[in-house]
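Quick one:
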Amino acid sequence: MRLLLLLTLCVTAVTSADTVYRYQDENGRWHFTDRKPPQQHETLEMVVATAVPKEPQIMFRPQADGGQQLVAVNPWRAPVQFEIRADDTRIHVWLAGPQSEVPVMQNDQPMVWKEGYEYRYIMGRPVPQGDRRPLQPPIPARGRFRISQGFNGTYSHKQEPSRHAVDIVMQVGEGVHAARDGLVVTVKDDYHMGGVDRFFLDKANYVRVLHDDDTFGIYAHILLGSAEVKEGDRVKAGDLLASAGTSGYSTGPHLHFVIQRNDGKRIVSEPFHFQLGQGIFPPVAGQWLTRE
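Output:
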């Protein structure tokens, strides 16, 4: 059996020591990498909580007759869609979470194990479109916050699943609040640094909330240790989720916010509008979000 595509992860944490190298380029800019650079550098030994995936799987279960039956297992709190390929056959299985398990069926018969199966999975139930009602901006009840990058942003919002993401400049420690009611399905709160090297691409801390319309709200780059929620919590729009930070691939303190959904083939982002006061508007780079 071979895994074709991994689209998203849920994490637990274990403690480990990582070696990271820090060096300056000719312009005096600091870089971090996990590969020893040829130029003069500093060696940093850091004890961190390392993400360990709990992945959805297609497994086999021994049967009384000596055979082995395929079973789809979902350890996540969010739904998962599987696609299983066997020769010219494609079978789709959808599992609600958490801790759900179902036999894989083909033509109403249990599918038995044999060599050559491949599978992939996508978080979420497939939906053609999410709820287009405007969202409450994920900012504190008071303050003024600038949108630094909007939809199709030239820096990092060029392709899915972040094409319709927004970046909101926030100071470290300022509150990140839920934009819509939902269920917290992922909390990654295990990393303390950020930067623009590729080393940081998978390091961002974030909260993922599953909404009633089967879309997800992603609140990324949160400050290490600031999560106020845990997996399985129900939240309302306006509830405090975490504090802003600059963890992961980031140019500075800000909140990366995006609405995503499973379109049946991949994870895509959804365009949305904010509602602030009496106004409803699409988020645009350079725009200020003000609450008094």
